[in-house]
Amino acid sequence: MAEASRRRGRGGGGAARRAERSAVSFETAKYIQRNIPNFEVLNEEALEIIEYNADTILEEVGVNFVDNPAALERWRNAGADVTGERVRIPRGLARKLCSTAPSEFTQHARNPEKSVVIGGRNLVLAPVYGPPFVRDAQGGRRYATMDDFNKFVKLAYMSKWLHHSGGTVCEPTDIPVNKRHLDMLMAHMTLSDKPFMGSVTEPSRAQDSVDMCGVLFGEEFVQNNTVMTSLTNINSPMTFDDVMMGSLEVYAANNQACIISPFIVGGAMAPVSVAGTLTQVLAEVLAGVAYNQLVRAGAPAIFGAFVSSIDMNSGAPTFGTPEASLVTYGAGQLARRLGLPFRSAGSFCGSKLPDAQAAYETANSLNMGLMSGVNFMLHSCGWLEGGLVADFEKFVMDADQLGTLHGLAKGVPVDADSQAMEAIREVGPGGHYLGCAHTQANFKSAFWKSDLLDYKPFETWEEEGARDTYALATNRVDTLLNTYQQPAMDPATLEALNAYVAQKKESMPDAFM
Prior knowledge:
Blueprint (H helix, E strand, L loop, with lengths): L1 H7 L4 H10 L9 E2 L10 H18 L1 E3 L3 H10 L2 E3 L2 E3 L4 H6 L5 E4 L8 E4 L2 E4 L7 E4 L3 E4 L2 H13 L21 H12 L4 E2 L5 H15 L1 H6 L3 E7 L4 E2 L1 H12 L3 E10 L7 H22 L5 E10 L6 E2 L3 H17 L3 E3 L11 H16 L4 E2 L5 E2 L4 E3 H18 L6 H4 L1 H7 L9 H10 L11 H6 L5 H15 L7 H16 L7
Parallel strand pairs: 2-12, 7-17, 8-19, 10-11, 11-13, 13-14, 14-16
Antiparallel strand pairs: 1-7, 2-4, 3-4, 5-6, 8-9, 14-15, 18-19
Helix pairs in contact: 3-11, 6-7, 7-8, 7-20, 8-10, 11-12, 13-14, 14-19
């Protein structure tokens, strides 16, 4: 069954390949493999202090596992001190438990050519996650619908520099809460062939995600391989709720990846200092990954760090700040010392529109992700208004700029062709390189080129309507959606998925809470 599912995942044979060749080009780049060093801000002494203090927090202060007697029993059996819902973990125990988590793993896509390896020196880019609102040039800011969700999945599928379809790219509020996860998963499974994320809003929905993947990939394949990544947020400071942990338990038990991610707004959910925040982040991740491994040793787990600071006047979160960058750089170092893949960064901004503020803050946030050694970057495109809004125009702006991360990550090759000595000899003093043999041989691939931004002379730009970047992005959204072609899927698999969703929906009344 697993082998059959892999064959199905290749996209339907010759007819599908012919259809793809006749469609608009939307090549998907391979996940980034860094050939540049990570930027490190903490020396050995600082790292040891933070690690020691994190163990002290776990041992003396402890963490809460609320409304989850089974979790408390697991911790008790592992040697932790459990009083009520407070779990105090002896020094070194959490780190020892974390050691069974893999340093890297493959997340399989239904199209095997789009599977990704998370960890090591790799960077996998995934779109925005979770906004209840969407915005575009035509409709402005509004509550998200399932139609919006489908459009974002299509855009992600057609975006060259995105490696992953993501999860809740927006929250489709026109679908009942207890059923929308089924429609969202169907969209990822059928409208795209890239890897995707599972539902975490309730443990039974996590199980639905696993079961639907069993239909798509084959049950045996799912149990032996990772086909989903899921986001497990910690209620910082140091609280692990039963919903998130219940979903984690489902995914870990089924060998699916969990991002264990403190949700930090410095000054509100963590100390205002960088070192203090890093200490709390590490303590929370250690406890979360350790619990993940108590459920199933060897299950894939990712060291997560979602970090912003707070505006002390308004109370609003801020993004693209130097403090957030320092925390992210430091968290990357701590993750690598633990031997865990690292999730952080994204197209973060606090702006209400895809304007200059959004561009500055997003550029800062994306670059810190590349330089800090992030392995899985959720929210890499489409994020607006502190994560409340998924913006269509910003989605394609950000997705275009992700190409610069690919270019930077290549580093500087110094092979014979890159040294260009023959070109320098050929041109000599006072000449130019436009017509030389080296330029002619390399000009197509020498420089990264935006598919969105305008490089034309002023006169041409003016004649074409003097369009700004927002107008160009609106046009690109329309062009992509109008030329979208759905990837082929085995009809029997599609029928089985539709039957599963229909049966699940019929089994329960609609609920909007």
